[in-house]
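Lay summary. Proteins are chains of building blocks that fold into shapes, and those shapes determine what they do. In this project we predict the shape from the chain. Here is one chain we studied, written as its sequence of building blocks.
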Amino acid sequence: MIIFRGIQINIINNLYVETKGLDSYIAKEVRIIIVNHQPENYIDVIKYIIDYIVDSKPTISENQNIGYYSWLLQFRLDEDNCYDIYEVNSDGTDFNKGCDTTISVVREQSEICRQHNFIPLFPNFNQSVVISDGVYEGKNIEGIRYDSPQDESGWYLITDDYNDDIKSLKMVHFYHVAFARPDILKYLAIPFGYRFVMEIGNIEIRKNEEE
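And here is the predicted shape, written in a compact code that computers can read:
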């Protein structure tokens, strides 16, 4: 048993990580099924949810979404009147029980940043990304991240299809890029002032000299 912010976190038969005491905030407990990761990874997600509920005191309802760094979770009522955590699947077509993709996405983004001594700056599903033609089609990308307002990720994703006409660029939500280009997702927590350059599947990360 772990106590976090006055809430118990229990591992139930190595099958679930579950809260006890969160019902004083949202009238129900929250649990996450354990699948492919170690229990401590699910505990980290539960702690994030506890922080959100204790600090924001939201009203939680069935099928309500919550962002977890660069992925999306959902509260769903189960037969025990508890909120099970679901996550959007990798192509955005549905939600699956658990949060294994979520854990993997955040871990990979964190690892790329650790390798370059960066503090991760996780984009979220509601932020915008600027893209050129060719991004959704899987072409090589140069991604440049600029300091931006909170509703923007700061990412500009450009391919060789870009015709140098700024009017041809499109502003889309981050999740469109996350679903269309999972191959670059792990690079998108690189902080402002840096870029990555993809050439034939290889990616180089460097400081943005235009800053």
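What the prediction tells us: The CA atoms of residues 70 and 106 lie 7 Å apart.
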